[in-house]
Specification:
Blueprint lengths: L2 E4 L4 E4 L7 E6 L10 H19 L3 E8 L15 H9 L3 H18 L7 E4 L4 H13 L3 E4 L2 E4 L35 E6 L15 E3 L1 H13 L3 E7 L3 H16 L4 E7 L2 E3 L14 H6 L4 H9 L7 E3 L1 H22 L7 H16 L4 H14 L4 H14 L8 H5 L2 H15 L3 H13 L2 E5 L4 E5 L1
Helix pairs in contact: 2-3, 4-5, 5-6, 8-9, 9-12, 10-11, 10-12, 11-12, 14-15
Bound molecules: adenosine monophosphate and zinc ion.
Adenosine monophosphate binds next to helix 1 and strand 10.
């Protein structure tokens, strides 16, 4: 039995699909205005693990992930600048070029992390007519009103508002009067925002030229592809109080019933115990880690060592340890590859059962990795164990069978020295950096610096 934590109910529940054997799943995708950071990638590692666990349980998935290439303001609650337009000014490119470039970067990262890509990838800019229709549907049912800067959703008309985050409607004060130029209630949100002529991304609509609100994207695209009933909706925890609350309001009011059955959220990655965000400028990307000599899958391994619902504190020591463990895991698996020992069916079944229990208990990947490690360590070298280990890797997606020629080429001692030198350089300790470079040189390797990292080559 597969159990998952449903944020909507605040408890672990048995997963029961709408249609037997099938899962309709929606994932909030990235806003493509800048490089995705390692925190963002946790949301997609979580999506990947969930998809893999569902597949391991025999489900066929119909998955959708959106690409937000328009209409996401710098604040989630309809204030600030449009992120795409802002990036366009910053980089002196059109918002379309910005979206194209960062979408490619995102998919490249998904590839580096061996992430199972959903069946449908939908771009917001390709769904504008459907979004307008969705808003019209809400308008007809009386859930909208228009003020100076756009068409708004009136949350006071939806009795279920706040159910996901236990928000209290009255807590923020009394609703303002109808007909006012401002939002009627602080939780009301824009469905369609009017934009000035200078705005580059804009479309005609029955209400005036503008852009769709961010939340309407996800409701429209999930409805268009998956229909009126959806099994699972995923996203990062920061989306829970505003974005997902608003999606529920739009969905349930337009359809007249509950649309999403299970809401699942991944917790945040912190850096040195603090918040990491594009706006705080303390981000690392997968590519940067790679340039520093870390294999991207080491980061995935690092993430899988915690449950998706717990915060993780990212440190380079933690990443280094993950890289070493992943290498050990691969070596152990290779040692079993041609092993001749015979392991009883009963024993193999027991390992498989322990593994399935772990992953089916709300994706307990740390425990599942523990089962894998102890199986590999405790059993005599056996091709049966090798096969079972690779079967488990269908869930981890860590490419455990890959003898990573390059990684094994550079001994971990050299990698650690090069990393220490890079860190010395970052704090401008030039003497120490030079000393470490010489040490690496004495071991037969050379460090080549790039803009954001380094590469190690053989001399
Ligand atoms: P965005 O492109 O800002 O919409 O973010 C893409 C995904 O990353 C969303 O699901 C966010 O909730 C998630 N996310 C953002 N920051 C972090 C973080 N530090 N740790 C984990 N997930 C994050
Ligand atoms: Zn969304």
């Amino acid at each position: 039995m597969l159990k998952i934590y449903n944020t909507l109910k605040r408890k672990k529940e048995e997963f029961v699909p709408i249609t037997e054997g099938e899962v309709k799943m929606y994932t909030c995708g990235p806003t493509v205005y800048y490089y995705p950071h390692i925190g963002n990638m946790r949301a997609y590692i979580f999506m990947d693990t969930l998809r893999r666990v569902l597949k391991y349980n025999g489900y066929k998935i119909n998955g959708v992930m959106n690409i937000t290439d328009v209409g996401h303001l710098t604040s989630d609650s309809d204030d600030g600048e449009d992120k795409m337009e802002k990036a366009s000014k910053r980089e002196n490119k059109s918002p379309w070029e910005i979206a194209k470039y960062y979408t490619e970067v995102f998919f490249n990262d998904l590839g580096l992390l061996n992430i199972d890509i959903p069946e449908h990838i939908t771009k917001a800019t390709e769904y504008i007519p459907q979004m307008i229709k969705f808003i019209q549907r809400l308008e007809k049912k009386g859930y909208t009103y228009i003020i100076d800067d756009g068409v708004y959703f009136d949350v006071s008309k939806f009795g279920g508002y706040g159910q996901l985050s236990s928000k209290d409607m009255d807590e923020v004060g009394v609703a303002r009067v109808e007909g006012s130029k401002e939002k009627h209630h602080p939780f009301d949100f824009a469905l369609w925002k009017f934009v000035p002529d200078s705005h580059i991304m804009k479309w005609d609509s029955p209400w005036g030229v503008g852009c769709p609100g961010w939340h309407i994207e996800c409701s429209t695209m999930s409805n268009d592809i998956l229909g009126e009933y959806i099994d699972i909706h995923t996203g990062g925890i920061d989306h829970l109080p505003i974005h997902h609350e608003n999606e529920i309001a739009q969905n349930d009011c337009a359809m007249g019933h509950q649309v999403v059955h299970y809401w699942m959220h991944n917790e945040f990655v912190l850096v040195d115990n603090g918040k990491m965000s594009k706006s705080l400028n303390n981000i690392y990307t997968i590519k940067q880690l790679q340039e520093m000599g870390y294999e991207p899958l080491s980061y995935k391994f690092f993430v899988l060592n915690s449950n998706y619902g717990k915060k993780i504190n990212f440190t380079f020591d933690g990443l280094k340890a993950a890289q070493v463990s992943l290498e050990n895991l691969r070596k152990l698996i290779q040692e079993h590859k041609n092993g001749t020992a015979k392991v009883s069916e009963e024993k193999l079944d027991t390992y498989k059962e322990e593994f399935v229990q772990a992953i089916n208990d709300n994706l307990n990947t740390p425990l599942a990795l523990g089962v894998l490690f102890s199986m590999l360590k405790n059993e005599q070298k056996s091709a049966d164990i090798y096969k079972l280990a690779l079967d488990f890797d269908k869930v981890f997606g860590l490419k455990l069978d890959e003898a990573k020629a390059k990684e094994f080429d550079v001994p971990s001692e050299v990698q650690a020295l090069a990393q220490a030198r890079w860190e010395a350089k970052l704090i401008k300790n030039w003497a120490e950096a030079d000393r470490l470079r010489d040490e690496v040189g004495a071991l037969g390797y050379e460090i080549k610096d790039g803009k954001d990292g380094f590469e190690i080559v053989k001399r």
